[in-house]
Amino acid sequence: MIVRSITRAVVALSFVVAPVAAQSTLGAYAPVATKYHIVSKGKTSQVMMGQSQEFETTSNQLLSVAVAKAGDALSLTMTLDSATVTSGAPTGAPDMSSAIGMKFVGAMALDGKVASSQVLDKSGVVSTSDFASNLRSILPRLRVGATQGAVWVDSFTVLGKQGDADLTSESVVSYTLAGDTMVAGTRAWKVTSVSATTIHGKGSRMGSDYTIAGDVKGTTTSVVSAAGILLGQFSESDSNLSVDVPAAQMTIPIVQHGTVQVDKVP
User: Fold this and answer.
1) Does residue 86 or residue 95 have the better pLDDT?
2) For 193-208, what is each residue's pLDDT tens digit?
3) Looking at 71-138, which runs of residues are DSSP E strands?
4) In Å, what is the CA distance from 35 to each residue of 83, 84, 87, 232, 266?
5) Rounded to an integer, what distance in angstroms lies between the CA atom of residue 216 and that of residue 199?
6) Which pLDDT tens digit goes with each residue over 25-78?
7) Which of 106, 142, 170, 246 is the most buried (most CB within 10 A)?
8) What is the domain partition of the chain in residue ranges?
């Protein structure tokens, strides 16, 4: 169905840990090679042809992340090692086989800002997988030298393809350096954020053109060690999308609540 291409919502993140004695200022990201286990859960409701449908989707991913020195900046490489999806959606769970082995390769500033990037398949060429636009940096934007209570804003636009739909998402994220903490004996900073994303796009399926529009609102808390390594994230988001099919005089509202947990693998 048309909605198969657009029910994967953008998510943001939230994590809470106990505070400890204050550190001085927020530092930059450091070179590291590590893995993250990511669990995403979504509850979706949609109304199509007068029929209300509700279903849940869960995905488990293992992601290898390498941050390396590149002159005065950094490079970021993320490899999707494995991914499984279970879903009660009418269309069933998506086939993730084309996504396994994909690499996100980007040039990154010390604060996590990705200046340029591309997604490659396991053979090293630019990926044409439907999931390529979903593979993007999981590292929050930092403000090097920030002290507790500091606020900064980031914005970015992502162009992508989901199935037969071309989508554009425009996001504004407001970050706050909430305080410092201790995680498994490691001193760290807690960075919270509030995000607002607008989504619009169009596609054609079975000879029918359609448009997509909506928004996603989320909250994020990321935990970054004092040494500049992401330790974990949790997220919560709510999305409201609408698919309009003029030829069928049909509008499909889609509402989703999503959560994401990101854990650094020891």
Assistant:
1) 86
2) 999 999 999 998 888 8
3) 73-87, 103-108, 114-120
4) 13, 16, 25, 11, 8
5) 8
6) 999 999 999 999 999 999 999 887 677 889 999 999 999 999 999 999 999 999
7) 142
8) 2-264
